[in-house]
Model the fold of this input.
Amino acid sequence: MHTRRAQARSIGAVGVQGFRVAVVGSGPAGFYAAAALVASELAVEVDLIERLPTPWGLVRLGVAPDHPKIKAVSRAFEKTAQQPGFRFFGNVEIGRDVEHAELASLYDAVVYSVGAQTDRQLGIPGEDLPGSWPATAFVAWYNGHPDFQELAFDLSHERAVVIGNGNVALDVARMLALTPGELAPTDTTDAAIAAINEAGIREIVVVGRRGPVQAAWTPVEVGELGELAGADILVDPADLELDPASEAELEAAAPTVKRSIEHLREYAVRESAGKPRAIRLRFYSSPVAIHGEGKVEAIELVRNELVSGRAVSTGDTDLLSCGIVFRSVGYRGVPVPGVPFHEGSATIPNEGGRVEPGLYVAGWIKRGPSGVIGTNKKDATETVQLLLEDARGGLLPPRSDGTLEEVLEDKGIDAVVYAGWEAIDLAERTAGEPLGRPRVKLCGWDELLAAGRSA
Ligand code: NAP
Done:
């Protein structure tokens, strides 16, 4: 039975209790949205729904394991989870276990913060050959994502190629180059540590289609390349001879871009230290085809020139032998069944986070896959402000008297609640402690669900 409680509750809204909001997706955007909601004067009750048994999204499963300081943002999320009115429902997928319409009927509002769950394609021949991987799959694998543990990356070849000049490309290149000593204190999965330690890789070539000034990466990540224990960093000084337009772009650029260029200039004149591996940064090159008999054996690259800031092919190609290619050209959002989706931008169409009163978005599914973790705080806060505005204005559609627990029970779905995640967390940290590691991740669905349900 539907009631018009939403409208009734909006009258004299300050201090009124009982608004219920579902936030779907428990990465940074979802947690920042939840934090803003529970802290609002409407004392909103938030159910944070997640398809995995574990929260934190890319903070757990995307941020590189050798970046523990970045992962420490999860402490703020833990504080949010302790707030009255906050609940976590892991192992529940919207569109599979619960339909969007069903969810919308249970809550005054729904916020989707589901991120960008797949990768962008290059659209070149050979892209699907065995040995050509989306970087996102490799990242998910070494971070212990339960959907990616069956993948087998053949790292026996001497050369790996990473396409793209973003921070994910640098994460992948750096992870491939870490020494056993650098990997040991991280929460990289044991399988990935073993594979990287045993890898035959000698050179990792990171390929950018434009020049160093146009690269998307940030200076801290560029600077780290110069401090690796087991890998030299190689930059061709000729790639740093900028055309007048790039010179002007650099002059006008943010200090971050200038700092990245300073690092690259230093690398270009640095003597090789003869370390066992090398990361080579190659610019002005686009992949045109990946070649091989039944598996990746080489990548064909074309030399580009910059025309009005765009990479334009010169037609001058060369073949680089390699055994594995990681395509790191950005993430891409996927549709949520029953929710509008814009194919071009791969986002849910919205204005400032409002799709329509009662339906909202935050994070990468709202604005596309850009920015750092902190970017999502402002983004999610903007969304929540619109949601609260709609709530105060009595614009939220009515909801039923039902609850998510009833729906899940009817369907026989066993959610992992926050105490269940805490049990997983404790098990992982306990396993990591004697080894001097932050945690040893549980990374199979069965073991995660078993630990999560033990609570
Ligand atoms: P990104 O920053 O958008 O970089 C994508 C890269 O792919 C760009 O260099 C882009 O070049 C290139 N590219 C796109 N299409 C291409 C094509 N067809 N051929 C060749 N190159 C192509 O994406 P990302 O690295 O996936 O990172 C996603 C977001 O997460 C970013 O905001 C990033 O900063 C963030 N992140 C941050 C960290 C960190 O803070 N440590 C770590 C990982 C990720 P063009 O510029 O020419 O398009």
